[in-house]
């Protein structure tokens, strides 16, 4: 059984009495960003982790977490200085996004993250990659991909809510790199990771960035993340 991650008091600084909750395991990779462990995020994660949560609430709550991930992910894209004039005729020295983007979802669970990306980036192009376990070799196998023709010129937001061993994510990045996408232009957005997956993935691709909501304690003997939330795709789509 994996070591239990520490519990920490969670809450705003102005409150003296704060509840304790298990927060994300700390990971020592410069290219991994874990969302701030706010009371809101922990409460949302507590809903989707709960086995008694019904599909409607699971979908609604996952979508809220995905929205937080997308908003944080966009902070890692390049911006340039951009001054605008306000309705009262004054200049405001701001920023604008630079560069074209596209989403790529790792089917099927990653497709659940597409709408969150569309909600923030209107008419964003979205590619798909299907990777499944080969029953004979137990290794991940590429079954299908459909990617924008000009993907090599874009920043890619790679979408998969669960990072377990990292096998599928690694294969997906290999596909993107084979289509000419430089590693430093890939951003992996993820709801729940574990130390094994983070280590395998982030150390293999030190130039890409990972944005995750939480790094859990580990994997069980069936490679489910623990304590985890079960099978994300089943809970989002079918259960
Ligand atoms: N995929 C899931 O849906 N859940 C896990 O725990 C691991 C991989």
From TrEMBL:
Keyword Glycosyltransferase attributed: yes
Keyword Signal found: no
Class in the EC hierarchy, top level: transferase
EC numbers, comma separated: 2.4.2.9
GO molecular function: GTP binding; uracil phosphoribosyltransferase activity
Positions of the Phosphoribosyltransferase domain: 36-237
Entry keyword set: Allosteric enzyme, Glycosyltransferase, GTP-binding, Nucleotide-binding, Transferase
CDD domains per the UniProt record, alphabetical: PRTases_typeI
GO terms for biological process, alphabetical: pyrimidine-containing compound salvage
Protein name: uracil phosphoribosyltransferase
Source organism phylogeny: Eukaryota, Fungi, Dikarya, Ascomycota, Pezizomycotina
